[in-house]
Automatic annotation (TrEMBL):
Listed Pfam families: DUF2461 (PF09365)
The name this protein goes by in its record: DUF2461 domain-containing protein
PANTHER family xref list: CHROMOSOME 12, WHOLE GENOME SHOTGUN SEQUENCE (PTHR36452), DUF2461 DOMAIN-CONTAINING PROTEIN (PTHR36452:SF1)
Chain coiled-coil ranges: none
Cross-referenced InterPro entries: CHP02453, UCP028451
């Protein structure tokens, strides 16, 4: 579970996002990160039993993303993220791709699954899979429980034009125009701080599991 001190650190970081404050509170950051790593360790162990493609040997330290922002090409020069991100890949140890993702941010935490902004080759393969087997995907995303947990799958970032190779009258054009294929469910602070936090997270991941299977089959 996430300790209240971890969320307190993130809250204060928002108000003091500068190197001087961060260095003065480095010990607090280290403890907060260790807390997130501990939760990630528990989630990996439990999630592997639900989705074997999440390796039980994943290094939780590598799954917890850097808090340091890359500001080299950004107009926003704030040096630190105001959250902890945990990437749980399903295709080996490389982060990204078809995965589960845990976002820890006071009042804005969530668990997600799917594939965010696929690379060109994978995007082409996913669209082809949708074109061939749209009913399989629709059976997943139109399930009442799925919609209740994650909302309307089609209401995410789409192309403004029809993707190359497909007809505007294609009955599944709303799915074919998607740029990402993700779902997410909010997590309350009290849920993260509860003794059953890892179980709650894995339960949500299990609901996204069929989507991840569809996407992985598409790019296999």
């Amino acid at each position: 579970m996430i300790e209240s001190q971890t969320l307190d650190f993130l809250k204060e970081l928002v108000e003091n996002n500068n190197r001087e404050w961060f260095q003065a509170n480095k010990e607090r950051y280290d403890k907060a990160r260790a807390n997130v790593i501990e939760l990630a360790t528990n989630v990996i162990t439990k999630l592997h039993k639900v989705d074997p493609s999440v390796s039980a040997d994943l290094d939780p330290k590598k799954c917890v993303m850097r808090i340091y922002r890359d500001i080299r090409f950004s107009k926003n020069k704030i040096p630190y993220k105001n959250n902890f991100g945990v990437s749980l890949p399903t295709l080996g140890s490389k982060l990204g791709g078809v995965e589960y993702y845990l976002h820890i941010q006071p009042g804005k935490s969530f668990i997600a699954g799917g594939y965010w902004m696929p690379e060109a080759e994978h995007l082409k393969a996913i669209r082809q899979e949708i074109d061939y087997n749209a009913n399989d995907l629709k059976k997943i995303i139109d399930d009442k429980e799925f919609v209740k947990l994650f909302g309307e799958f089609r209401k995410q970032d789409q192309l403004k034009t029809t993707p190359k190779g497909y007809d505007v009258d294609n009955e599944n054009i709303d799915l074919l125009k998607l740029k990402s294929f993700i779902v997410s469910h909010p997590l309350k602070d009290k849920e993260l701080m509860g003794a059953g936090a890892a179980d709650e997270i894995v339960t949500m991941c299990s609901k996204a599991y069929p989507l991840n299977i569809f996407l992985k089959n598409a790019i296999a």
